[in-house]
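Help!! Second protein's tokens look totally different from the first
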Amino acid sequence: MLGENITRTIKLNMNLPPPPPPPPPSPKSRRKLFAALAVVLILIILVPTVLVFSGAINLGNPNNNNLFTANPTVPVTNSPNITPGPTTSTSNNQVTISSGSTVSVTSQSIDATGGTIQVTDSSSPLYGLKIVVPPAATSETVTFTISYADISNINGLPETASVASKLIIIDVTGSPEFNQYDMFEKPVTVTLPYDSAFVDDDSSPIRFYWYDESTGKLDSTGFLSQDKAVHTITFETGSFSKFVAIKVALSLSELSGINYTVDTGFRPKLNGWFIPNYGSVQTPGGMCLGMVSYAKWYYTYHYADTGLNDKYIEGDTHEWRDDATAIQLAARAHLATSGIWSSLTQEEVGWAEANAREVGLSWLSGMIVTGEPQLIGLKARTNSGNYLNYAHAVMTYGYSDGTFQIYDPNFPESDWGDRMRTIPFTYENGFNETYISGTTRSDSLVFNIFYHAGSKLSSTPSDYQGLYDAAQSKFQGSSTFPTVTLTDINTTPTGTTPADTDSDGVRDTTATKTTISGTITGGQNTITSTLVFVDNRKFTAPVVDGVFSVEVPLMTGDNDVVILATDANTFSNWAGFLRDTIKCTGSPAAMTVTLTWDQGESDVDLHVQEPGTEGRHIYYSNKGYDTAKPYLDLDNTAGYGPEHYYAVYGSSLPGAGNLYGTYQIRVQYYADHSDSETPQTISWHLNVKYLAYQNQQTGQEYWVEASRDGILSSPSSVGTADFYSGDSAWSSIWSIDYPTPDPVVYNIPSPPQNHFN
């Protein structure tokens, strides 16, 4: 047999006498041997080193149980890795909720004036529910329908998580356009009740989540505050759906040290944008909210696709400026949230009402329950308690060694453990450091207020899916997307947009205001008005026979200009797009008051009563043109605005040597020029921005910016010279204090949220 022959052969060979010893190697052979050994040693040392520095091997992976761990690839699930502590029990974080019959609670309509919906029946399971819709959050009447259902079973939660409320259902319906995008223009404040039977302490934090039964996804609503006495949680949102409260058991002893790790699998080098936030948090021109919100959405719904970092790279793989699709997508994603972002940056909300423990535990709970990164809002509050006018949006995608790992679009492709891209937090100490960000590491801003923002504060999944689909075709196709062209003295037709006068490739002007003009052609829809954004400030311009123009204020330096050719919702996937830059070298405005409104064919006027006994009433009949004095630029009688009250740097008030004092501002509805039997309801928007303080040593400027919105329904051309008129055509008086600067006031202290009960 063959097997036997082999066996015998082996035995036979084993019984042979041993071979003679080999001859001693020659000197030449020794040299070859030493050379071979040297090569082997070099390879042993070099190969692991190359793998480590190339990223193929990661020595610092926080979830590593061995010496070397390969870098993560695109995850097949979004389940978080939690060490020590609970782990999710299902793949892809699919959650299914079984519930009983729906019980109707209340229904109420809200129009452009805003309003409050509240459940005051103490016998209702939804007692304590409250929804506050601010003025101008919607331009139409929408109907809220509120109901609930008992939850009989839920599958897909982490082992240490459990349901802590009814399934709360909030439906909002309006026009077909509103129903398509399902988004409010300003944040809506929501307070929801959870089950009072649950013991609610820091070891078992309760937070609310959106539930999307079509995808089986839970998504954190974010967190503003909690009232444990009445068992309610308050957050802000831009859209509504089904909500459920989830309780998560945490180990506070581990959170007091550095032994607790949560990892969603997100990595900036793979799942973040390749392009940086090409605007800046120093000006409102940044795109941070849109960028982090889209990155989170993409990771949640397209995690099996190419990583976002590689998805939209075009041209030179090492250069982001030629990635036209990514740049346009980031701009569209952010500008669609312009109303939300303006509210977050310019309106004071109770950002610091929640203490550091509540915020940190909210971020952790969100990552554990959803397996996804969590949105973080950043603000800066001075020693005086005033908020500075800048803000920023980032994400936390993990927690390890007592720090939250941060994805910051200003610093793309950062690594886990990058000390500059972390927010230190322990249960015992809270937030013990400020967070620094900016256009570059050297050009930095300091943030000391941290809060938990919900991703649906700025968009819905279907909104971003529409942008994703349009980006698949690189936003191209003249039959779908209108073509936007700016016009200036060198174009045909000519226009008023500043031209490039010094041949450096950038439009420039010495004026602190300009009229942007252009044409819009093609596209699937006829455009009757277009949106013009200057450093994220929105203006609306009528489009007549394909031509538009609008006057806008400019800041000294580079002004980011975006034209979004749509008279519909800013999420319109077919909207035309153009981005450009206008450099202003004029004397900077120390103070600007801007009035805009959302309706055409209407005459609305800005009125400013200046401080002091010699203060003037500035309006269309007294524009105040005078050397070195503030003035009104124009009287817009056609609709939309803008109208501006300007005070350039170095100007002063009558009878004073400066601009300091209390300004009173009002809006007056002068006339409706539409053909409707009933006058249009006007949704107006005021924005005030002034230079509060300039550090003479560093040159850093501190600006204060505030905004206000309102509704007017009854036009009147009578008594417009009386600033204090009580006529219904006038808004209430808005007082703005422009104080004498105190340098101490503008110091930013350590995080002030570390005050625990």
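Here's the second one for comparison:
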Amino acid sequence: MSHSGNRLSKEKSLYLQQHSNNPIDWYPWSEEAFERAEKENKLLLISIGYSSCHWCHVMEKEVFENPQAASYLNEHFVCIKVDREERPDVDHVYMTAVQLMTQSGGWPLNCFTLPDGRPVYGGTYFPLQQFLNILTSLQKIYHENRGEMEQYASNLEKGIKTADYIKVDETQVIEEGKLHTLVEKWASSFDWNDGGQKRAPKFPLPNNYEFLLQYGKYFGEEATVEFTHLTLHKIIRGGIYDQLEGGLMRYSVDMYWKEPHFEKMLYDNGQFLSVIAKACNDRPSLEYKWVLEQTVNWLETKMKNQTGLYKSSIDADANGEEGSYYIWKKEELQVILKDDFEKAAEFYQVNGNGFWKNGNYILLRASSFHEFSEHYQLPADTFKNWLEAINSKLLEARSGRIAPVIDEKIIFSWNCIIAIGLIDTAIALNDISHFNRAAALIGKLENIFITPDLIFRINDDINKIEGFLDDYAYYVKACIQLHQYTLDDKWIAKATKWINKIQELFETQGELFYYSGEDALLIAKTLEINDNVIPSSNSILANCFWDLGVICSNEIWLNKAKAMLQHVYEGMDHYGSGYSNWAILLQKVIKGDLSVNYLSEISGEEHLLQLKKLQDIVLFKKDIQADRTNSYQICHHKNCFLPEKDFSTILEKIQQLLN
């Protein structure tokens, strides 16, 4: 193999390109690699990661660029590199395997398999010497105890195929008490000092806080609402949020949201827009509005490509050093800010709170905008102008640094998540420009990624990867959101088409859907059930079945949503954080199929006013009747009440129904 490049040099994926100059004879995920392993009777190394992963870079430098490791791998193994963002189906299978073997997982994910792809050993990051020891041990066992390894692989394969199997008790009744038990158990791990859960690292998990906010408001649990706002305030004031430019980083390594793992992921920030928008709806503030506008501006200026689609991520490292783009020396800030330094240093905690290491500081905040402006007796507009000026100076200085690499890969489902976040932002800020961005984005996605019969996850000049369940489910969700904003039934027609197509394309186990279609190279198909940094594709889809069922008065879809919920119902209260999107569905089912029907024409402005009040409480639809004016109707539990002429009466009746 030439050291000037390996097979990965022909791949479009930035992550694969990053490994194209390794001295390892890497293959992309391909039939060719498996055929060679079978022909030469060699074990496979399937190594999975993504471009902005810090520890993937560390292992590459320490292990995959090491001549000794490369030589041994090239002689005794066939090596495959996989971009998990392009092939999440491959990642799901081998992550399940590693979790079964080690009870933990993460990236880089390194799984050793038999030539047919059945795993026999795996883990995440391995230091060089440990990795070399693993290679020699596996090679010895494979040739001296092949039968034992084959038996282990067969048992593990069965475990992978049954890992997500859930036996459903068809007699169980869905009850409100399950929801309360889930929150009560979850609340025992709430960190009332710094928000989130009492542990490190801390992941933002926006869907968790969407659920908790909805739950607290719906059941009048003010403590849960308070905890949600506490958490969101701690996040947006912490180092995990880019104070200068906007955008959320992937997680905090400590319990205080101070020290981030500096990569920025598109999917985090789409969900972040949604939860901050809904928090802003609940308690409007300059701080929430600032974060929404700042993050949208960052998405528009840094993450949008020339075709109007959004790139997938920004690396944690710049010039080989984690976080170097974002951190500051005190002396550097003094030179840039001059007379403004003392006030800015207090605002951004350039003190013991913000100190990181090696004389560097992470910008973060200890106070709200209101508290700080009150302390300095600054009117809101004056404070905002001052902050914009400070940030502008610091951003100009930061622009001269070596910037982290942006992965320009366009992922269909992640762009749908951005569209949903933009719609939520439009509602919160009463700003149609954000909705227009969302509608334009969906239009571009439809033109590039959607054919009459398929949705593609990746569709560029080199790669065409068919969509997985999350790609389809998030598109349906985006269509429902677009309908709720516009009340244009074309979006319901699109959602209906593709939710029916999902049932054609994705085989089910019970009532749940497999994540992927057929791939002859994969040893198993997996179910995505638990909600994680992105809610599971099955929970997104189940919520879509429910929402469409309410809007279209479709009993089959309502029952489908409830049947999917039954598959997770029994154990969901033991792990609220991992079932938060299912809990949103459970709350909908308990509440019942509640909708508001417009029987007369309504202006867009009036509809958005009502949507802002009732988002996540009811679904809106229209059935215009020519002889009516100012006519609204509530439908609940398949029963439609007499029309009302005053929307305030509708609000009162909804409150009565929910209580």
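Reply: Different proteins will give different token patterns, so don't panic. Residues 430 and 605 are 9 Å apart (CA to CA).
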